[in-house]
Amino acid sequence: MIPVVTPAEMRAIDAAAAESEAQLVDRAGAAVARVARTMLGGTYGRVVNVIVGPGNNGADGRVAADRLAQRGVKVRVFEVATCPAALPPADLVIDAAFGTGFHGIWRAPIIGDAMVLAVDIPSGVDGITGSASSGTLRADVTVTFAAAKPGLYLGKGRQLAGDIQVVDIGLDVSSATAHVVEASDVSGWIGRRGGDAHKWAQAVRVVAGSSGMTGAAHLVTAGAQRAGAGMVHVSSPGVEGDPPIEAVSRRIPGFDWADAVLNDLYRFHSLVVGPGLGRADHTVPSVTKLVIDAIVPVVVDGDGLFALAWNEHGAPTMLLSREVPTILTPHDGEYALLTGHRPSDDRLAATRQLATDTGATVLLKGPTTVVASPAGEARLVVNGDERLATAGTGDVLAGIIGALAASGLDALTAGAAGAWLHASAASFGPSRGFVASDLLAHLPDALAALD
After folding, report:
1. Tens-place pLDDT, residues 275-302
2. Which of 61, 193, 204, 412 lies at a C-alpha separation of 20 to 30 Å from 120?
3. 14-23, 75-84, 390-399: which range is least confident on average?
4. Residue 343 and residue 241 share a domain
5. Are residues 162 and 190 in the same domain?
6. Predicted confidence (pLDDT) at residue 240 exceeds the cutoff of 90
7. 215, 122: one domain
């Protein structure tokens, strides 16, 4: 996993370093120069413009400029205070104007068609939220040191950072409590089924769907199956009909159905509740009782989150009494239902806060999905794209997480691995016309790619 630290955490790491500031600046500048040479494809006849500011980022840029000049690159250095509105033509612009501590508005000069290499973070991007002013240069590559910063993956920063390269300059970042999930991590978390596996070894119970919304139950169930569940039992309160293929349909009443699910929940290893249940008043008490009394890890999604928000006990505190893991999977609107306000621009802090308040692991969906445990550990899943912005994809995600929780993964890992697999499956699908059921077809591809 790639460590992620806030600007304040990075300052503390810098302050604790055994090396001098000058040594760290020299290492950082040398790393920038190496990446610049790679981007240029050589040094002969190349021209580089370097924009430098007054802080350490500017110092890094000056070191990089000196290193490139020593290699024969024609280098021009422009101070922020006297930088012209348009720079002369160049092959590459190194943006070393401002770092993660910058506050204000930065309007970069016109640079033509030059490539851009940002030092630590594109100047003008907030290191925590990723917000940025309209004048920020979009980087082709961002070189950041020791650990990534949240703003590189959130808000506008996600589009402005380009290819993010984290360079080791000798700092100890073992204190980081947030990390970006990579394919190698997911591969290590998700093992193959053993030779002695049987269908009940990873069993998932699903309560989802209602009259007119049975598709949600099918998507959740199939998501769990494709993610490894050997047995799935599914119920849609008060609805009779054919179950999703290869699943068992369990009829439960339309009202007061919690006990009907709880009675044999001991046979299962996880429970997924909520997608497509509807928002009728009589649904709320059944969801509340089921979630509070369930003896297995519970994934709550969709209308299940609505029920928790409107129950008489008050979500978030009702979940604190649970002795087994709970995973909440809200998008921004459902987050607002649970808390009374939408998540702040600091999505990492917002996710952690809801996890702390509820005692649940929280997966806040978005272009970058943030997963946080009640203890404050967080995972960023950054491989998703716009294909996931379609109805039903969240139902599939809930099923995937349910299957991974049933396999014995802890809640934080199940949420992070599930979100990563979900995004990876989408990458195998069509760029246009993508629908939720395409995820089901491509989940095996995503899993196979991990081998």
Report:
1. 999 999 899 999 999 999 999 999 999 9
2. 412
3. 14-23
4. yes
5. no
6. no
7. no
CATH number of the domain that 31 lies in? 3.40.50.10260
Q: Measure the N-to-C terminal CA separation of the chain; round to a whole number of Å.
A: 18
- The strand pairing partners of 327, in sequence order, are 299, 361
In this predicted model, what pLDDT tens digit does every residue of 206-233 receive, in sequence order? 999 988 888 999 999 999 999 999 899 9
Q: Of the residues 127, 160, 176, which one is the last residue of a structural domain?
A: 176
For residue 24, what are the domain limits?
Answer: 2-176
pTM of the shown model: 0.93
Task: Find the CATH number of the domain harbouring 199.
Answer: 3.40.1190.20
- Are the beta carbons of 213 and 276 closer than 8 angstroms? yes
For residues 229 and 296, give the distance between their C-alpha atoms in angstroms, rounded to a whole number.
15
Residue 74 in this model has a pLDDT that exceeds 90: yes
How far is Cα 47 from Cα 43, in angstroms, rounded to an integer?
8
pLDDT of residue 106: 84
Residues 163 and 193 in one domain: no
What is the rounded CA–CA span in Å between residue 59 and residue 439? 47
Q: Does residue 358 contact residue 374 with C-beta atoms inside 8 Å?
A: yes
Q: Residue 191: CB partners within 8 Å, gap ≥ 6? A: none
Mean pLDDT of 183-194: 86
Residue type at 79 in one-letter notation: E
Structure-block tokens of residue 157: 């920063």
Q: Is the pLDDT of residue 303 over 90?
A: yes
> What Rg value do the Cα atoms of the chain yield, rounded?
25
Lookup result for tokens 């199940």: 414
User: Do residues 238 and 382 share a domain?
Assistant: yes
Neighbours of 7 (CB within 10 A): 19
Mark whether 83 and 130 lie in a shared domain: yes
Q: Are 296 and 233 members of one domain?
A: yes
User: What's at 384, amino acid-wise?
Assistant: G
pLDDT in tens, 34-61: 999 999 999 999 999 999 998 899 999 9
- Which residues lie closer than 8 Å to 110 by C-beta, 6 or more apart? 85, 86, 87
Q: CB pairs under 8 A, 24+ apart, for 441-450?
A: 443/223, 443/226, 443/227, 443/400, 444/226, 446/421, 447/190, 447/227, 447/421, 449/183, 449/424, 450/183, 450/186, 450/187, 450/190
Please give the tally of structural domains in the chain: 2
Distance CA 342, CA 367 (A): 16
The tokens describing 5, both together, are: 């630290």
Contact yes or no for 388/426 (Cβ under 8 A) = yes
Share of the chain above pLDDT 70, in %: 96
Are 249 and 101 in a shared domain? no
pLDDT for the residue numbered 243: 64
Which tokens hold the place of 290? 């089921």
**Euclidean distance between CA atoms 273 and 354, whole angstroms:** 19
